[in-house]
């Protein structure tokens, strides 16, 4: 597989919501790493799509990651790929870099749907979470077994930058130090 190219990437943030995150194992790290990726994406002109699962029950996206008002993609199906209009929000030429919760439910089902649709999918292991670590690990293993690449936040950021000569290098590197 080729490097993660910022001109072909879309950051997909799945269901990092206020009523869910307090019960996610290592939830603070998931929020922090997703925040790093979201900020880097915006600095490097990588589009960001945020989903919200049953927002009436789980609340909105956490304030640290809140998308522009009215831009979150609402869904009731666990896999976003099953939600009407989801693929309309994904440009055809973009690979998906995926973060969010829960790794073994909504992230897994979304990733499997993207793979089934022929999309290249990269899942950021240190930016996905579940209530139990073993569920997260099982979800990541199943995604990998079905063709998703499993990476870390730093891998994505440095591949998006490509070079220490990138004009935004210092700004972006500050996010991970």
TrEMBL record:
SUPFAM superfamilies: Isochorismatase-like hydrolases. It comes from the Bacteria. Pfam families: Isochorismatase (PF00857). Transmembrane segments: none annotated. Gene3D superfamilies: Isochorismatase-like (3.40.50.850). Residues 9-154 form the Isochorismatase-like domain. InterPro entries: Isochorismatase-like_dom, Isochorismatase-like_sf, Isochorismatase_domain. This is Nicotinamidase-related amidase. The lineage of its organism: Bacteria, Pseudomonadati, Pseudomonadota, Alphaproteobacteria, Hyphomicrobiales.
């Amino acid at each position: 597989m080729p490097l993660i190219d910022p001109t072909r990437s879309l950051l997909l943030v799945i269901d990092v919501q206020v009523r869910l995150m307090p019960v996610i194992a290592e939830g603070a790290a998931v929020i922090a790493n997703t925040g790093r990726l979201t900020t880097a994406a915006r600095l490097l002109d990588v589009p960001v799509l945020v989903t919200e699962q049953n927002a009436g029950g789980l609340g909105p996206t956490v304030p640290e990651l809140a998308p522009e008002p009215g831009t979150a993609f609402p869904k009731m199906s666990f896999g976003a790929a099953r939600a009407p209009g989801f693929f309309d929000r994904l440009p055809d030429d973009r690979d998906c870099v995926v973060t969010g919760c829960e790794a073994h439910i909504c992230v897994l089902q979304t990733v499997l749907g993207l793979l089934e649709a022929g999309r290249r999918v990269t899942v950021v292991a240190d930016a996905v979470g579940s209530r139990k670590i073993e569920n997260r690990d099982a979800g990541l293993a199943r995604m990998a077994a079905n063709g998703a690449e499993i990476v870390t936040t730093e891998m994505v950021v440095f591949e998006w930058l490509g070079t220490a000569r990138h004009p935004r290098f210092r700004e972006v590197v500050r996010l991970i130090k």
